[in-house]
Amino acid sequence: MFHSKVLLLSILLLASDVFAARINYSAKYKDGDKIARTSKNAQVPDDKEQSILDHMKTWSGDKYEATKSKFNFIQVTNVEAAASKGKASEEVQEMQSIVAKNIKE
Question: What is the pTM (predicted TM-score) of this model?
Answer without folding.
Answer: 0.81
